[in-house]
UniProtKB/TrEMBL annotation:
It is a multi-pass membrane protein. PANTHER family: BLL5419 PROTEIN. GO terms for cellular component: plasma membrane. This is Flippase-like domain-containing protein. The chain crosses the membrane at residues 12-35, 42-60, 80-102, 123-142, 162-181, 217-240, 260-285, 297-320. InterPro entries: L-PG_synthase/AglD.
Length: 334
């Protein structure tokens, strides 16, 4: 078989996996008769798509800023093009981090002298995004009041609160050291770079990870943009819920439900977290709302995933129209 056909066949298989998961969820976990009886507001569905598109675009802009902080030139147009392809790749790899590898490969090939910085920009972008999500989860859990839930569900939420608190504390300490550590941290990095086994690795990644020390304003902007990204995604899902149900959980309750679901979907188990996200959202729809709701969390989560797949079509266009430089990176990735 010609290599081109092998590539096309393998790509088709990878895209078939998330499609199969969506079909399985659609046919075995949705009461279509009940859905057809529900009044639908297509205007709110369109608004949900636009809000989600704004959220994804904001995340693309955040990565562009972080790349520039590493001293790597990257236009906003390039950042949006590459990020769109990466967003598509998130649906063909486990978890929601598949596209990050393509970003790292593309930047490393384009800037051979700054390969470590290129990879660091991707990890920092993912870290800042995750930190923003953890902050949103922590803030939401502070106001969560699942008084109508069972003791077992309240215990599980308490465990989530504890785990979130630990992760936020660790993340805050690490980022504070990297941003505000000063010369002491630089000296520690230099000492660690002399160690036998990890020294060479520390010497390479130490400086790129310390780039926020020279760009503290960019750090706060990146965190604020992360909060904005996740908040817009929460609003998008709330609009979907309102388009299908008269009395879904409130917007405040969605600010508890959606971030926890996103955190669960980030675990590398299924393509783009498909399946995991729907199960967690359904459980949270039964646990968080102060007033019991007839809304189906799994259905709303599935519609939200379909909205993201719709946005990924843009990435498909960029994927098939990639230039030579992008194709070389794609071939290396595959």
């Amino acid at each position: 078989m010609h290599p081109t056909w092998k590539t096309i066949g393998w790509t088709a298989i990878k895209f078939a996996i998330p499609a199969a998961i969506i079909l399985w969820l659609a046919f075995f976990h949705i009461n279509w008769a009940l859905l057809s009886a529900q009044p639908k507001n297509y205007g709110l569905l369109a608004a949900a798509l636009l809000v989600a598109l704004a959220a994804v675009s904001l995340s693309f802009a955040r990565w562009c800023i972080l790349v520039r902080c590493q001293g790597i030139s990257l236009s906003m147009v390039e950042a949006f093009r590459i990020s769109s392809i990466c967003f598509l790749f998130n649906f063909v790899s486990a978890g929601s981090v598949g596209g990050d590898l393509f970003k790292a490969i593309f930047l490393a090939k384009r800037r051979p002298g700054k390969r470590i910085e290129a990879v660091a920009s991707v990890f920092v972008d993912r870290g800042v995004g995750l930190y923003g999500l953890l902050l949103l989860v922590a803030l939401a859990l502070l106001v969560a009041d699942p008084s109508g839930s069972s003791d077992e569900n309240r215990d599980r939420l308490d465990q989530i609160k504890l785990a979130t608190g630990i992760l936020v504390s660790i993340g805050t300490v690490v980022l504070a050291v990297l941003v505000f550590g000063g010369k002491t941290v630089d000296q520690l990095v230099q000492l660690a770079s002399r160690l036998r086994w990890i020294g060479p690795w520390v010497a390479k990644v130490g400086a790129p990870l310390r780039m926020f020390h020279r760009h503290p304003i960019a750090f706060f902007v990146a965190v604020a943009m992360s909060l904005g990204v996740h908040s817009l995604l929460v609003i998008s899902m709330y609009l979907i819920a309102r388009s299908l149900y008269v009395h879904p959980p409130t917007l405040l309750e969605h600010f508890v439900i959606v971030p926890i679901g996103m955190l669960a979907a980030a675990v590398p188990i299924t393509p783009a977290g498909l399946g995991v996200y729907e199960v967690v959202i359904e459980w949270l729809y039964r646990t968080i709302p102060a007033t019991k709701t007839a809304a189906s969390g799994s259905l709303i989560a599935l519609i939200f995933e379909i909205v993201k797949v719709t946005m990924a079509i843009v990435g498909t266009v960029f994927y098939w129209t990639a230039n030579q430089e992008e194709r070389e990176s794609l071939e290396e990735l595959e």
